[in-house]
Design brief:
The protein has 81 residues and is an all-alpha fold. The chain has helices at 4-9, 16-31, 35-40, 59-65, 67-80. The structure holds zinc ion. It comes from Pleurodeles waltl (Iberian ribbed newt). This is Reverse transcriptase zinc-binding domain-containing protein.
Length: 81
């Protein structure tokens, strides 16, 4: 289920599958270098989201909350249903 991430983050999903989803999200957060993280490390001057321009784009933003990404997930969700 592609939009299960926010439900895990918000604590609405429970059980073994939620634990696995948390591990996956933590792993993705660890391996995905967002512009904000690169800026924190001094590897980039700009921490804005490359898609929408929001300031200080963290993993939750680039993976779920960005309006551009949300339209992508909505299209995927509609296609699967
Ligand atoms: Zn964005």
């Amino acid at each position: 289920m592609p939009i299960s991430g926010p439900r895990v983050i918000l604590g609405q999903k429970k059980g073994p599958r939620a634990i696995i989803d948390c591990y996956i999200l933590n792993y993705l957060n660890w391996v995905y270098y967002t512009t904000a993280r690169l800026s924190d490390y001094g590897l980039r001057n700009d921490s804005r989201c490359p898609r929408c321009g929001k300031d200080s784009a963290r993993f939750a933003h680039v993976a779920w909350c960005c309006r551009v990404v949300q339209s992508f997930w909505l299209a995927v969700f509609r296609e699967l249903h």
